[in-house]
Amino acid sequence: MNKEKISHISTLLPFSALSTEKTEHLLRVANLFEYPKGKTLYLAGEKASSIYVILSGWIKLYRETLDGNQAIVDVLSKGHIFGEGALFNENCYTCSAEVAEHAEVATVPLSFFAEEIETNTKFSNAMLKIMAKENCEKTKELEHHSIQTAPQRIGCFLLRLTDVTQTGPVQLNLPYDKSLLAMRLGMQPETFSRSLNKLKEETGITIKGSTVEMKSLHQLSDFCCMSCTAEFPCRDLIKCKMESQAKSKHRNA
């Protein structure tokens, strides 16, 4: 089972750019780990030996301020790679990583990445593609902070958790606790609570605990996307859905 789980990473960028021989080598040197919520994987500034791939769960990336508070950099889910910044930072991790919700991760030696970037043009281009995508996402977040209200930012986050091709009633679960979600969206807990209530008033969605229900995706998109430069559904969400379907067909073939 562990081998089957690890083999999944070979379908992800940048590993899908590897030759058969290199893929076999990847699967030999990769290791699988399972971690509980709250487990610290590494701290900013530590020497890096591995880069991580999320197989399930959620990972929080953060920096710690001088007064001991956390500044959330990102919260990542299945399929994401993290720790790769060490490749361009004197082999030191650029931020800290902690398990936000029970997670399975695969580790790949940093040396494997360094060698492939040096010798494999396709692999290097794939890494650049990943970094460019992350940069676009961060740019979009900056845009949202500038022009969207707090309730709209929460609504946008919820939309990105849904299957954008779905029609009719929608039900989803918040992936991690609300306090972390507030930090992820750059809000104080009290601001998040007020904004969540405002979102429910404006859109009619219902939230009970971690469960969110709405009559249709338009119930949220009509409210959130009026203050955005992109129409719903976002192109990257459509692409992710298509890629997910393609991978599912490949695994079932």
Unreliable stretches: none
CATH architectural name of the largest domain:
Sandwich
Oligomer: single chain
Q: In which range does the helix fraction lie? A: 40-55%
General shape: globular
Give the strand content: 15-25%
Estimate nothing, just give the exact number of structural domains. Answer: 2
Could you describe the largest sheet, including whether it forms a barrel?
6 strands, antiparallel
Number of helices: 9
> Which CATH C-level class of the largest domain is it?
Mainly Beta
Write the layout of secondary structure elements.
Elements: H1 2-7, H2 20-29, E1 31-35, E2 40-42, E3 50-64, E4 70-76, E5 81-82, E6 96-109, H3 110-119, H4 121-147, H5 150-159, E7 170-173, H6 178-184, H7 189-203, E8 206-208, E9 211-214, H8 218-224, H9 235-252
Antiparallel strand pairs: 1-6, 2-6, 3-4, 3-5, 3-6, 7-9, 8-9
